[in-house]
Every structure is written in C-alpha cells, then in structure tokens.
Amino acid sequence: xxxxxxxxxxxxxxxxxxxxxxxxxxxxxxxxxxxxxxxxxxxxxxxxxxxxxxxxxxxxxxxxxxxxxxxxxxxxxxxxxxxxxxxxxxxxxxxxxxxxxxxxxxxxxxxxxxxxxxxxxxxxxxxxxxxxxxxxxxxxxxxxxxxxxxxxxxxxxxxxxxxxxxxxxxxxxxxxxxxxxxxxxxxxxxxxxxxxxxxxxxxxxxxxxxxxxxxxxxxxxxxxxxxxxxxxxxxxxxxxxxxxxxxxxxxxxxxxxxxxxxxxxxxxxxxxxxxxxxxxxxxxxxxxxxxxxxxxxxxxxxxxxxxxxxxxxxxxxxxxxxxxxxxxxxxxxxxxxxxxxxxxxxxxxxxxxxxxxxxxxxxxxxxxxxxxxxxxxxxxxxxxxxxxxxxxxxxxxxxxxxxxxxxxxxxxxxxxxxxxxxxxxxxxxxxxxxxxxxxxxxxxxxxxxxxxxx
Amino acid sequence: xxxxxxxxxxxxxxxxxxxxxxxxxxxxxxxxxxxxxxxxxxxxxxxxxxxxxxxxxxxxxxxxxxxxxxxxxxxxxxxxxxxxxxxxxxxxxxxxxxxxxxxxxxxxxxxxxxxxxxxxxxxxxxxxxxxxxxxxxxxxxxxxxxxxxxxxxxxxxxxxxxxxxxxxxxxxxxxxxxxxxxxxxxxxxxxxxxxxxxxxxxxxxxxxxxxxxxxxxxxxxxxxxxxxxxxxxxxxxxxxxxxxxxxxxxxxxxxxxxxxxxxxxxxxxxxxxxxxxxxxxxxxxxxxxxxxxxxxxxxxxxxxxxxxxxxxxxxxxxxxxxxxxxxxxxxxxxxxxxxxxxxxxxxxxxxxxxxxxxxxxxxxxxxxxxxxxxxxxxxxxxxxxxxxxxxxxxxxxxxxxxxxxxxxxxxxxxxxxxxxxxxxxxxxxxxxxxxxxxxxxxxxxxxxxxxxxx
Lengths: 454, 454
What we know:
2 copies of one chain form a homodimer. The first copy, chain A, has 454 residues and is of the alpha+beta class.
C-alpha cells in the first residue's frame, strides 16, 4: 500500500488526551444517571434491518448503514430492482442487518424482547456509538456517541422533574454553565395547531415549527401561511406571551386556548414542573411554545438543551415523553420518557470554552528513567509497590539518553520523573523530579512508598 | 410486526447486571493498563475495506463484515463477478467499508496515520467491540469485546516482563487464580522447525503445531510426519524437556539446538524473563515450546493465557512481539508487543466460577417509596442532597401500593428503602429499611445526611 492509510470519511480516531476527555464526560454522566436510579444496558451495534427501517422517516432510512450479507447469501441480490433503479430495494436484498441509528428504537426492541426479565418502571441508561451515512460537517460525524437515559412504564410527572434536575447536575459537574433547557408539551402544541386551523393532521404543523432554529421566525410564519394555517392566531399567541414570567405565560395560554381544549392538563403539568424546580445551579429552564421536536413518537413533554450562546453547535441534548414507543413491536401502554445527550457535541463545547480540567491530558503519574536493565530490574519491586498503591507508572523500556527519556515524559505531560542512577542506587535513594516545576527531591528508597506527591 | 423482535444471530443484549459485571472487568483492566503506563485510544468501528482484507488470511477475510455502500454507489455492483460466482469480488464492488475484525490492524493503521502526533515508545490500550461473521457457539459471538494493550517503538525485554506482571495483577484484582500463562519464542520455534527439516518455510510448521489444543499431540505428530518433518527430532525434544524445571528446559534446548542456531538470544531472553518474574500471586507462567500462535506477524516472544482447568473456554488472552506490524503500511522498524484479553470469555469464566463480588447486581443504593406526589415533592431537597453526597437513589415515580414498590426494590436487589408517609412527615422523620436484613431505623430528617449506612 503506497498511500498513507486513514480512517473512513466522517469517522475518527481518538488520541489519548481525547479519549481521556470523552471518558471524563461519560463518567460524569454515568455518575449522575446512576444517582438518578438509571441502570446500564447495552445493545448490539447491529440490528435486524427490518427493525430499523421505517422508524426514522424516509430521510432517516437513507442514512441507515446496511451490512452486506456474507458468503452465498449475496446470490439473493435483487437484480431486477437494480435494473429498475430501486436502489434501496436492491440494497435490502443484500442485507439482513443494519447499524444502529440511535439508541431509542433498539431500547424499545430491548424492552419488548426482555419484558419478562425486566421490572417496571424500568430506568435504563446507555452510552454507545450510533452510525449515520450523513454528509460529514462541523460537529456532525458518521459515527458518534449518544448517552441516553430512558424511564419506561410510568407516566408520572416526577420523572420529568428528575430529568431536569439531572440535566442541571450533569452540566454542573462538567463546569458548563449557561446552558438553556427549553421545554414544551406536545398537547399544548396540538391545541395551538387546532386553534390555527389544523385538523387532526398536526404533524405538518410540527414539522414547519421544527425548522425555526434553521430558518428563523419570519420564514416559519411564511411557511405556516402557505400551509393555510391561521397566522393571526399564531401572532396573537406570540404577542400575548412576550415579556412574561413563565407562570404568566402559562396563564395567558390557558386564557387563549380556552378550557375546552384537551391541553388543560398539559398546561397544569408544565406549571407543576416550573413551580417545583427549585434552585438550579447551571441551567436555565424556559417554557418555549415554539419547540416542536420533529420525531413522531413524542406525545407529552418535550425538551431540548442548547449550549451557551457563544458556541454554535446547536442542540447538545434533547428528549421527551412518548406514550407508545413499544407499540410498534406489539407491547402497548408503556408510557416512557427519554433524554439523549450528544457526547461529541458536548466535547466540542467544553473544548471551545476550555472547560476541561487541566489534569485530563494524561493518565500517567510518573515516568521511571531507565539507566540500565540491571538497575531497572533491582528497582522493579519498588515500581510494583508504587503500582499497587495506585500510581500509574511508565517505565522507559530501554536505557536511552536521559534527555530523550525526559523529553518523552514532557511530550506526554507526565508530571513526575523517578530517577535512579548508579550513585543513587549505591546511596539507596532516588530522585523524584516534578516536571512541571523542575523541583527535585532526594528520597531514601525505603521512604518512597510513604512519600506524598500529587 | 407480528413476531417478537430480537437481536441478530450471534449478537447480544446486555441486561443491567451483565453490564455492571462487564464494566467491573473493564474497570480492573483499565486500572492496571494505566498503572503500567498505557494510554487509551479509540478507533472507528469501520475501516476502509482494503485496509482490513488480506490481513487475516483467507479464513479471516471471509469473516469480515462488509458495509454496503449508500445510495447511488450500489450501481457499481460488479454483476460479472456475481455471474462468475466470484462472490467476494461482487461484495467488494458494493462495499468501501468493513467492520473492525480485531484491534491490532486498526492500531497499526492508527500509528502510521498519527505518527507525527505520537511520541515513541507509545503504549496504548483499547477496549472496543470487534465483529466476525463466525458461526456462533458457546463463548463465541459475532460481536465481542477485546481489551488490548500494545507497546510500539521499543524491542526492550522489560516490556515482556511488565506484561507478565500486568497479567498477574489483572487476574489478581479479578480474584481469578489458577490461570496459566504459557510463553514461547518464535525464534526458538523456528530453530526447532529448521532442525526438523523445514527450510525457510516455517509457517506450515507453526500452523500444524497451532492445532495442538484442538487435535492433541498424537494427531499433531501425524500431521508433522505427513508434512515430512523429522518426527524423531521432535520426539527427542519432547522427551528431553519432560519433567524439568524451566531453567533446565532452556538449558536442555540450548544443548539440543546447538549454538550455531540464531535462537541463542531468544533462549537467553526467555531465561531473563523467568529469572526476573519474582513472586506472582495468581498466575502460573510456564515455558511451552509447543505454543505457536497462528498469526503471521509475531516474530519474538509469544504467549497465551488459559483459564483454570475446570472451565473449558480455551484462551482468555494472548499476545506476542512483532517486529514489523506497521511495515505493511510503509512504516518500517517499529518493534512492538501486544496483548489482547477477551472480555466475553473472562466474563464467562468469572460467572462459571462465581467470582463476581455480590454487590455487582445493581448500581442503586436506595429506593425512595412514594406515598404521594405532595410528600415526594417536599422530600425532594433531601433526595437531592443524598444524591449530591453520592448516593444512587431510585424514586418510585408514582404512589403505587407499598408492596408493589418494595417488590420492585427487591427485584432490582436495591439494598435500602427510604420510607416517609404522612405520620413520619409530621414527626419530621423517615424510616430507612435494610431490605437484605429487614432491619428498620427511624431517623430524624435533619439527621438523614449524617446517617451512616452501607
């Protein structure tokens, strides 16, 4: 192979300092997920093709990676479909499996498949890669990691409340302040859609509203007008809610929508949430009637989290309540609520805002300088003891020049070097050098284990 | 969908207690990998197809999962190849990417691609899934997790020594005693092959020897005889080494092979390792001249770890030294050594031997019983405080019957329940029940944070 090998387009390697940073974020999430009573599960990278297709809309279907059948099975290629230009059908004839597109549909499948092994309400978290054959761009990759927490088998509003508290706790632990969690309710949106002239067909209304982030309010109004919605109603709602506290907004909406609409409970639910939030440390929670969240399966509360304004990566997490996620697999009446954090985008945000703790560069505590195999060999019991005490020790494997060895320690940002040459060995001592400050201490070998260094 | 959905054949879901067990194993490995100075990296699940194919032999090539190209690209299907029954070539025309088959070839690619961002010697660990289109059977899956540690850019024997110590430390932490690490050297094997009549073509000799585990010694001898090797030499070696200490075995081999062979250093190297091992806590290290390790790229020391004899899962880890792993990608003279642990098999072994700590059933510390939304809401500041102090709290989301709520806690093996009904709230106290022993304590609410419970 003459050309330099590289990763497939849109897929990335992670260097040590990047993995350490990503693990830091996942560790914070894992800690909080568990404090909120979620249990970990994992599902395979691949699912049966027919389980995934048809669940994410046409656009989603096109982005699902299909896995080629092995061996003789490729003989089943539907050449007729190829000839007719039905490329998707041709692909399907060659593929029984597909790569996981998100963690929600696999979770629904998991719940149905293992319903007799699970106890409900069931709260699970899952942090795994997903794959989408999407055009790569800033903050968008073909392989990325989602961190999901879902609670299924209960329609209690306490779950919504706990989700908001958990979001705040996660961003607090990440030192990321200034995030905004926008919250809305599908039933409120439906009531508004009805008032604006939509019949039972509200999906179109949601789809247009969902473009707000990308195209702006004027364009959304134009699209709603084109779709023959009553734009005056929408304008009057927008005006009536302007510059009001959340409680007043909810009251105003109640007045506007009237008590005959079925949204009554949902406004009350939102009111319950806002009045019970208490003090949040790092997240602002706002009611936003324009939040739509495109996905069909949401039926209740919906929410979306944006990074601080100075970083333009869009949503870093989102979720909502669904009443019938497992219905498509034949298991009815399982209300649930889920949230999904985008690890890769949170990583981008923390990087751009320089919020990673400085110690996250390396996972090594000390480099042992190697003067000779003989000296290292006699030092080995001490090295083993340091490791047993939890120190992470890089032993330079050969007796290279001191400058080269310390150069590596510097490149890897290892904070300490342990130096023991012939003269130190004779004196039964060693030198511990702080590579950040240059300070050196001479320590008797017998005192090495008791020496306190950070 | 009328049938119950399930995972693809050979691929598995992991329930919470299984993930917790797997995470326990990976956490032990991560801790020891880091104590031995390895840094974490990650590579994508997919690689360019041509990077993987041709690296694992014909058998390996057939087991590589190929990913179907998206959209228009499937029009490039090589129908000629399909017609001629060249199924692999047909598959290749539809696929640019393939699923990672192991973590070694991706690591070689990683080193070459990032050579200017890395400092050598470079020690990396990597714990990720790999995929093989293999026939599923006991302990063999189509998706499984490898935990690899490689050190590249040094041929120092200290690395071999550290690997053995690290293997011992890992199994020690897992409470798994009775593992055997068998070690050999490719150059010793080559010398034996030469003596037995092989020319420069030693691969065939290794391949036959590699079947020893599966077919037994008599069958291997027959195969060697069929291949016209000098079976008397092999018999005499076998006899000369029987019932000897490792040092004597190495001496005897030196005598048998004579000093003219190039294996001299390798016997000396093995001698160095055995004389410097010191006291190992849970692993037996033995010299085994019959260990061959099929993979072509090994050039120096090779080793394989077997589980205790009462569990029949075969190898749970293996590795060796390679002198030119990155050569195939145009980067010469990078000696390295690697080890790969099979997470799934280690999990099987620990399960069969019942060696997982009992606390690994759940990650939840306490279930808060829900008597009413109102009571839970006033309790929330206390719940938040418990969580801030690190307790993992499952709040039952609705006011179901007490029996049902405690039933869930029992099913999830949650050790404690926090109970606060109307009367307790009036008395500003709560009841903490140990669900394992049935013991109950009444605690004043203000004392809840200070209460010590395990």
